[in-house]
């Protein structure tokens, strides 16, 4: 395991740094559905939370607490939940830092019916190998954007998004049609154009049509599988051995050597930040046979 992905060693067990994936996109583009599909394909859903290798965190858990005046506005659909100022950037950053350190974290869930954080129903995020962080503005804040190892943007056209948001907000978020449409035209649509859409350029992978795009989802799932396999030592990380016949005696690595020399060449290592780059054999990897 390379040092870059290992945090510390406790009782002989290495604490591994999770692979952090940001999932951005407009409202109702299918961010949560894409994350659920990824988790399902990786066999992570019918499993105890403490055992999961892949977890999803929603940016909604980082909405700021509203003052009484803001709450009153929110109930009339007059508060802008789509502006970057609606989020607690610092808390989001500190929480992701803790997650990257392999710590267990507790975050509130979000209650859309009351427009508030729900501390009664906290979510425990257990240490995992892969963490998906999804939300409309996860790529907006540079400090947070820089934490991601991979960035996905779910790109669904605005008509489809509105057509999905209306029934969802009425059925699941306790809104009426007028409030949904007023909020959409006043805040959601302009904020998408000003703050969310421009962050598409930061994405490594753009997923047109969201969860319907099974090809894109399968590719992402395969990438995560490769990462998990490599991390658990089941991937193609075994060394390649090359035998060299040093006859006559040859100067090598500052020493005179002769006979059969075994050279260990570390195999292609598909860890994040190292993708596609074969490791270079080091002087230490030149070992004499016993
Ligand atoms: N591919 C799809 N086809 C049909 N409905 C979808 C699709 N993707 C998402 N939805 C529905 O659209 C709504 C918004 O999807 P969701 O994944 O919650 O979006 P987001 O997390 O981006 O807000 C939900 O009611 C969801 O069930
Ligand atoms: O109290 C709230 C908080 C947020 N919203 C809206 O939610 C979306 C973001 O959630 P998605 O699941 O990505 O759609 C955002 O557009 C806010 O307008 C809300 O209506 N009320």
From TrEMBL:
Pathway(s) of this molecule: Pyrimidine metabolism; UMP biosynthesis via salvage pathway; UMP from uridine: step 1/1; Pyrimidine metabolism; CTP biosynthesis via salvage pathway; CTP from cytidine: step 1/3
Catalysed conversion reaction: uridine + ATP = UMP + ADP + H(+); cytidine + ATP = CMP + ADP + H(+)
EC class of the enzyme, as a word: transferase
Annotated GO MF terms: ATP binding; uridine kinase activity
Biased composition (Polar residues): 270-284
Name of the protein in its database record: uridine/cytidine kinase
Keywords: ATP-binding, Kinase, Nucleotide-binding, Transferase
Species: Glossina fuscipes
Record carries keyword ATP-binding: yes
All copies of domain Phosphoribulokinase/uridine kinase, residue ranges: 20-215
PANTHER family recorded: URIDINE KINASE
EC identifiers of the protein: 2.7.1.48
Pfam families in alphabetical order: PRK
UniProt region (Disordered), positions on chain: 269-290
Signal peptide: none
Family: Belongs to the uridine kinase family.
């Amino acid at each position: 395991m390379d040092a870059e992905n290992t945090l510390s060693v406790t009782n002989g067990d290495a604490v591994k740094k999770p692979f952090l994936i940001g999932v951005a996109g407009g409202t109702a583009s299918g961010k949560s559905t894409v994350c659920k599909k990824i988790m399902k394909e990786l066999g992570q859903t019918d499993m105890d939370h403490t055992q999961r290798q892949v977890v999803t965190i929603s940016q909604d858990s980082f909405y700021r607490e509203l003052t009484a005046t803001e709450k009153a506005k929110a109930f009339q659909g007059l508060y802008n939940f789509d502006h970057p100022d609606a989020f607690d950037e610092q808390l989001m950053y500190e929480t992701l830092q803790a997650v990257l350190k392999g710590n267990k974290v507790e975050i509130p869930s979000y209650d859309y019916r009351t427009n508030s954080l729900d501390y009664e129903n906290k979510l425990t995020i257990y240490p995992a190998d892969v963490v998906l962080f999804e939300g409309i503005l996860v790529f907006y804040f540079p400090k947070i954007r820089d934490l991601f190892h991979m960035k996905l943007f779910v790109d669904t056209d605005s008509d489809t998004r509105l057509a999905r948001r209306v029934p969802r907000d009425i059925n699941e978020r306790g809104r009426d049609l007028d409030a949904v449409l007023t909020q959409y035209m006043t805040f959601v649509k302009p904020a998408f154009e000003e703050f969310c859409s421009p962050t598409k350029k930061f994405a490594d992978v753009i997923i047109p049509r969201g969860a319907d795009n099974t090809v894109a989802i399968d590719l992402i799932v395969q990438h995560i599988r490769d990462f998990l396999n490599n991390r658990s030592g089941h991937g193609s990380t075994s060394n390649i051995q090359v035998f060299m016949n040093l006859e006559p005696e040859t100067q090598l690595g500052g020493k005179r050597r002769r006979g059969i020399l075994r050279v260990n060449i570390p195999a292609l290592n598909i860890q994040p930040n190292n993708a596609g780059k074969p490791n270079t054999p080091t002087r230490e990897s030149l070992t004499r046979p016993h």
